Every structure is written in structure tokens, then in C-alpha cells.
Amino acid sequence: MTSPDSASLLDLVTAATDTDAVGETILDAALAEMLDFGLRRTNVEVVAKRAGVSRATVYRRFETKDALVQAVLVRESRRFYTEIAEAVAALPTVAERLVEGFVVGVRHARTEPLMNRLLATDPEALLPYLTTHGYAVVAASRDFLVWQGEQVAGKLQPVENRDPAGVAEIFVRLAISFTLTPQTCIPFDTDDDIRRFATSYLAVLMREFDA
């Protein structure tokens, strides 16, 4: 799979879906296949059988296996961003939105079946997009968090040499780190634990942006 740049990735995962009902059925089947067999062993012919369509129908909508896999990952990422947006929608401050977005992000990464399956069975396929080639994911998530903050505070400007994008990126990089290396001396088992950590250590970086 090729890695999109951060702008195109954010556009992909926040755009409204244009997949029809048959396409959604194919994506459901592909997701089930990936959960059962991992990325490398996912077979387009089996996906077609699961979806109750022909291989030709799959390839008319998704030209290659890589395109099909990317479409599944984009849809799951869209669900992730939607979950964050819904969780923070009623919160009145930038700091609260960043804290709750951090909580939801860590929880989702811990419990999301596809990510955990790929980390277990296809780490060589997934890990580069969260580590050495992970900037597009980091930047897209960072820009999404900044955008969420701007929904309540307007255009965010640097405060005391702290750039809002830089602070949001710290949130994202920490969330990825805790996902990939969950063992820690910090109480981090429950949503309340994560929220206390984010409030104590991270929210202070954002409070000035609410002024």
C-alpha cells in the first residue's frame, strides 16, 4: 500500500462516503475476511463469495486488492474520527475537547478489532504507518484535533510560543505510543485513568487557547 500525504488522508477519512449498498456489502465482507485471516491472506475471490457477488463486481468498484484494503481502512478510520467528533461535540472548551479526544482515541485503538488483528498478525504491514512512515497519520489526526478545538474557540493562534498544532501533535504521538507500548507505570487502565492523565499532564498545554 502506498501512503497518502496528510492532507489527502484527512480529506479521505472526513469526506462523506460515496459507496453504494453493494460497495458497503463488499467492504463488510472484506473486513470480516481481514479479521478472520489477516491482511496477507485476505483473498478477493473469498471476499466476493462472502458478499454474494462476483469477482468482477468487486473489481469494478475496487480495482485491486490494495484499493479494497485501503477502502476498508479508510472506512474504519472514518468511524474513528466520527466517534471522537460525537464524543466532544457538547464540550465547551478547547482543553476539554482535546482531553476527551485523547481518551476516545486511546480507547478506540485498544479495542478496535481490525487494528489489533493487524498488529498481531501483520505487524510488518501496519507498523510502518504508525512509526517510521507514520507522519501522514500523525498529521491528519493532529489537524483533526485542531479543527475540533476551533469549533469552539475560532482560529487558534500560538500562545507564549506554543503552537496549537504542536500541542495537538503531542496528544497524537502519546496516544500512538500508549497504543503500541501499553505497559506503563502510569495508571492507564480505564477511561477515568486516561482522562486524569490527560487532564493533569496535557490539558494545561491547551488552557491558554481558551482565553
UniProtKB/TrEMBL annotation:
Q: Which species is the source of this protein?
A: Actinokineospora alba
GO molecular function term, any single one: transcription cis-regulatory region binding
**Can you tell which superkingdom this protein's organism belongs to?**
Bacteria
Keyword field: DNA-binding
Residues within the DNA-binding region(s): 43-62
Pfam families attached here?
TetR_C_35 (PF18556), TetR_N (PF00440)
Q: What Gene3D superfamilies does this protein map onto?
A: Tetracycline Repressor, domain 2
Domain HTH tetR-type residues, every copy: 20-80
Q: What is this protein called?
A: DNA-binding transcriptional regulator, AcrR family
